Amino acid sequence: MTWCKSAWQKAQPIYDQIVIMPFIKGMIDGTLDQSKFNFYIAQDARYLENFGRALALIAARAHRKDHVLDFIRFAEGAIVVESALHAGYLSGQDGAKKIEVSPACHHYNSYLISTAAIAPVEIAMAAVLPCFWVYKEVGDYIFEHQNKNGNPYQAWINTYSGTDFGIVVNKAILICDEIAATCTPRQRDAMTEAFLTGCQLEWMFWDSAWRLEKWPVMA
Ligand SMILES: Cc1ncc(C[n+]2csc(CCO)c2C)c(N)n1
Questions:
Q1: Does some domain include residue 98?
Q2: Is residue 216 part of a domain?
Q3: Quick check: 145 and 28 in contact, CB under 8 A?
Q4: Where is each Thiaminase-2/PQQC domain found (predicted)?
Q5: Domain residues for 57?
Q6: Structural domains in the chain (count)
Q7: Cα angle at 88 between 86 and 92, to 5 degrees?
């Protein structure tokens, strides 16, 4: 079995808990409270900037030249393409108002940047894979079960269930399998651990938006 298939099998319990989250159910039927979605989008803007930087760091550290190029393109996608989706949802709101990063977003950003900067590069690649793969699976799941009548979250759903995004995700999966095939069992286990951590952080990101998460103590 490929590394990706076995990693996904291990992540299945996390994925199963993601698709039943109230945030996801709300996007499916279109009833998700606008304030929770706005919180999510605002946090995601802070996340995407860091994610783009993490991908650029991995590009710089990749061993194969074709992987350098792939990760440069992923980084561009994170910053440019995704920002367009965000701009659509945030239009009409005060773009200059930079919201405070939530604890879950802060934690995810720190994990991505530190892993991309100093972990062995195969672990860094595994750590960012859930950002692609979980979104593809969740996007497809929502698309299949959605209420299409005036769902305010249609643009989001179309982005992550679309074929263009599918091609990018398949590329990220293929790269991890290519790298895992060159690794020792111990390195592959470390990749799996990083992959599972990324999946947990994806769950936490949606959970924090549902709770409009705040810092437990403030100045
Ligand atoms: C918390 C969070 N995780 C993953 C994504 C999805 N995503 C963001 S950038 C990118 C790759 C390049 O387009 C992908 C798949 C998101 N938006 N927010």
A1: no
A2: no
A3: yes
A4: 8-211
A5: 3-93+106-210
A6: 1
A7: 105
Q: Are 116 and 124 in contact (CB under 8 A)?
A: yes
Cβ 70 under 6 angstroms from ligand 1: no
Q: Which amino acid is at 90?
A: L
Which two structure tokens, joined as six digits, stand for 125?
Answer: 């690649």
Distance CA 187, CA 194 (A): 11
Q: Is 77 in the pocket of ligand 1 (CB under 6 A)?
A: yes
> So what's the ipTM on this one?
0.95
What is the pLDDT tens value at each position of the chain, 219 positions in all? Answer: 999 999 999 999 999 999 999 999 999 999 999 999 999 999 999 999 999 999 999 999 999 999 999 999 999 999 987 777 777 777 666 555 678 999 999 999 999 999 999 999 999 999 999 999 999 999 999 999 998 889 999 989 998 998 999 999 999 999 999 999 999 999 999 999 999 999 999 999 999 999 999 999 999
DSSP state of 77: I
**pTM of the complete model:** 0.95
Token pair 């079995």 is found at 1
Q: Report the separation in Å between the CA atom of 174 and the middle of ligand 1, taken as the mean of its atom positions.
A: 17
CATH classification at residue 128: 1.20.910.10
> 55 CB less than 6 Å from ligand 1?
no
Query: Is there an atom of ligand 1 within 6 Å of 139 CB?
Result: no
